[in-house]
Amino acid sequence: MRIFVTGVAGFIGSQLAEALLDEGHDVVGVDAFTPYYDRDAKDANLADLRDRPGFRFIEADLRDTDLDALLDGVDVVYHQAAQPGVRLSWSDGFATYDSCNVLATQRLLEATRQAAVDRFVYASSSSVYGNADSYPVIETDLPRPHSPYGVTKLAAEHLCGVYAANCGLSTVALRYFTVYGPRQRPDMAFHRLIEGALDQQAFPLYGDGSHIRDFTYVGDVVRANVLAGTADVAPGTVVNVCAGGSTVLRNVIDAVANAVGSPVPIEQHAEQPGDVQRTGGSNDAAQRLLGWKPQTNLADGIAAQVAWHRSRRPSN
Ligand SMILES: NC(=O)c1ccc[n+]([C@@H]2O[C@H](COP(=O)([O-])OP(=O)(O)OC[C@H]3O[C@@H](n4cnc5c(N)ncnc54)[C@H](O)[C@@H]3O)[C@@H](O)[C@H]2O)c1
Q: Is 149 assigned a catalytic role?
């Protein structure tokens, strides 16, 4: 198949593109190198991809590029591109979230509808749930985002539903729950914890460390995407992609210290607006609809991420 991956220079998109090439597909990847984090990290994510047969990279911004030409002959679209992160989505920062997450998705859906694409897989987020009344959350729970970021991820998910209902576009939204593993974005907790332990630099802990998260390994998220590309599901399907665990952040700090072999120095900060107290999902629908189950436990996943951090250090 010919596959289109947006956000291909990112943490998840780059590893998804590699998996799709491994499966024998041709991949066209797009990324705008938005400045949320260092371009060097994104170039490194792309390094192995660039020379692989069957891969073509296009530097373009989904907000203004001519998408019709890019989608010619494409069978499946994986839309990973977005402005991620909760903390910058307040105040003036919201304009970027609005344009990268909502407008860009609408433009891509519109172009996809014209292009006779078989499947549109959208990278949604557990942030659409906000603080739920009970856990684990299931896909039919009323989404009530707790941050402007979550609002934009939900708006784009609803756009998928609108194009599915009105145009028959075969959309699948995968709600990822806190993804970790090699290439994790530098703003994310595991990344900063591991770097903090390796360099003995303070990790800024927002709140008291009692937050609970359903951490999901990147390889498992990639596999859910591959399955969602061809699964026999109805247009407008929404599926949680979560390991199903409930890990307290304080315990992650200990697990990282164990894996690295040195403690993580902590610098205490106040709770941040937009951070939910807990995420935790049911993956029953993913098992039933996609035939997907998480395969990587937290200890193995952390070990893989620590190995990646060590591998990119100058002494290696
Ligand atoms: N990482 C997580 O834990 C997590 C959790 C839930 C949902 N998600 C979603 O998964 C997707 C991938 O996240 P990630 O962690 O890999 O982020 P990432 O920032 O590493 O990757 C996103 C990529 O999209 C690109 N991009 C952004 N706006 C663009 C635009 N307008 N045009 C072209 N390219 C653009 C960026 O340059 C970046 O390389 C996002 O949609 C995110 O909202 C991630």
A: yes
* pLDDT tens, residue by residue, 263-312: 999 999 998 888 889 999 999 999 999 999 999 999 999 999 999 999 99
Pocket flag, ligand 1, residue 32 (CB < 6 Å): yes
Of 129, 149, 163, 180, catalytic: 149
Flag whether 316 is in a domain. no
Q: For the chain, how many structural domains are there in total?
A: 1
Which residue's CA lies nearest to atom 7 of ligand 1? 125
Q: Is the CB of 187 under 6 A from ligand 1?
A: no
Residues 63-120: pLDDT tens digits?
999 999 999 999 999 999 999 999 999 999 999 999 999 999 999 999 999 998 999 9
At 292, which CATH number? 3.40.50.720
Cα-to-centroid distance, 261 and ligand 1 (Å) = 31
How many C-beta atoms lie closer than 10 Å to residue 116's C-beta?
10
The model's pTM? 0.98
